[in-house]
Structure prediction request, 194 residues.
Amino acid sequence: MKLNLPYRSGTVRVSSAYGTRTLNGVPELHKGVDLVGSDKTIVAPCDGWIGLAGFANDAASGGKTHEWGNYIRIETEEGYKIYLCHLESVSVRERQKVKAGDVLGREGSTGKSTGNHCHFEIRKDGKSTDPTPFLGIANRIGSYPVTVQTSTGKNTDYAGLVCEKAGLEAQTKAYLDKYKYASDLWRKLWEAMQ
Ligand SMILES: [Zn+2]
Prediction:
């Protein structure tokens, strides 16, 4: 299974890797990766359907996932369950089919969370697994560009990268996007910035 980063554009920072980590002196298994997007719009990382869209914030209920706040579970034909958690808002319904790139909601900080991020977890047969090989990124803190699906295939979102690095506003991006050769321009600008 191959997954896109679950963000619409720009860059995504891994703020906490998958695996054992120590919080307040207590080692625990972090069962997913924590992602922070420059664009807060969360999109489907693959085709599938929404198995669950709920809110979990009550440890007293006995729920093992009470820390997740607003979360979505995407299910795939291969039997993977993909969890996206701490969302500010959810814009899909349970049993809805989704295609890679469809908007699911917005990154947030609901549930047990100390700042905006998306806890991204994959389970197969009830067991969590390192999601980074599926996402094509390293399992360590770092920043990665989002690739976006277009009619001609998968492309790096150079416009998002340039706007983030140069601090350009949305209006400036919208203005430059009207230029006939905008995609070439963004790519050249990004290359010139390296
Ligand atoms: Zn997490």
Notes: The longest helix spans residues 182-193. The chain has two domains: 11-147, 157-193. Helices lie at 132-135, 158-166, 170-177, 182-193. DSSP finds four helices and 16 strands in the chain.
